[in-house]
Amino acid sequence: MNRLKGKIAVITGGSSGIGLATAQRFVNEGAYVFITGRRQAELDKAVALIGQNVTAVQGDVSSQEDLDRLYAVVQTEKGAIDILFANSGIVDSIGIDEISAEHYDKTFDVNVKGLLFTVQKALPLMRNGGSIILTASIASTKGIPGYSTYSATKAAVRSFARTWTLELKDRGIRVNTLSPGPVDTPIMESQASTRAEADQLKARFAQAIPLGRLGRPDELASAALFLASDESSFVAGIDLCVDGGMAQV
Ligand code: NAP
Questions:
Q1: Domain boundaries defined on the chain
Q2: Integer Cα distance of 130 and 42 in angstroms
Q3: Do 93 and 145 touch, CB atoms closer than 8 A?
């Protein structure tokens, strides 16, 4: 299929999980993709997997210098952006009694400040009529013990989509939020100290999902493709929940 033929996409957090599955899908649909992440080894693996029409730029979204470097590479190599998937995110599951200022700063720096400047610094390169997709989470509308900071960051992301939809409407740039429910990616393991603990966490989430299982990264890639392509030409400012029904019933 060629639904993104000739399009240039930037995907932050494109080296793993949802971002990697989406990078593969976008390339299969005819796009050229720039992916980012902090770990060079993961980026190298992702580039090998995607195989063609991809450039990896190592960097941390919470660093202004790294974002400037990312967009300098995009400017030099392609000169424009049609699709921005601001998807990098982290989670540390910590109860209210244990939250430290360091945990708060780290989570907001990546998930909120990093995402905001990812978008702001992309705008000079964005073509009119482009699509911006922000990865939030159904955690933004649910109370989940241990997720106060993370959920608050994702509520901020959902809010950005509302404001930016209006701020960017004159350029024909659509902004939408993509909110995954629990999806089987390495972010699950990052919340557990052992394999058994990770399996327990996944089983607990699966029980809370009407469809009875975790999502797959490729199912989120399908939703991202919809928001990125002309298939969603009359869709703006929404929160597309891909969650097996978890936050819907
Ligand atoms: P993942 O497999 O852990 O992928 C996260 C990606 O973000 C990696 O490529 C990671 O690379 C990158 N990243 C993390 N911190 C970064 C930083 N400071 N700068 C640049 N890149 C950074 O997790 P995922 O599940 O695909 O998560 C993708 C997004 O979906 C996140 O925003 C997450 O909050 C959201 N989400 C996931 C789920 C779920 O259940 N999986 C549910 C709801 C929402 P490096 O570590 O190398 O930097």
A1: 8-183+217-242
A2: 28
A3: no
- Three-state secondary structure along 82-123? EEEEECCCCCCCCCCCCCCHHHHHHHHHHHHHHHHHHHHHHH
How far is Cα 45 from Cα 41, in angstroms, rounded to an integer? 6
Ligand 1: centre distance to CA 91 (Å): 8
| pLDDT class of 61 with cuts at 50, 70, 90 | very high
Ligand 1 and 18: CB distance under 6 A: yes
As a whole number of angstroms, the distance between CA 86 and CA 123 comes to 12
State the distance from the centre of ligand 1 to the C-alpha of 17, rounded, in angstroms.
Answer: 7
Domain 8-183+217-242: top CATH class = alpha beta
Determine if the pTM surpasses 0.85. yes
Q: Which residues pair with 86 in a beta bridge?
A: 134
Q: Which two tokens stand for residue 2?
A: 């060629």
3-state helix, strand, coil in the chain (%, to 5): 50, 20, 35
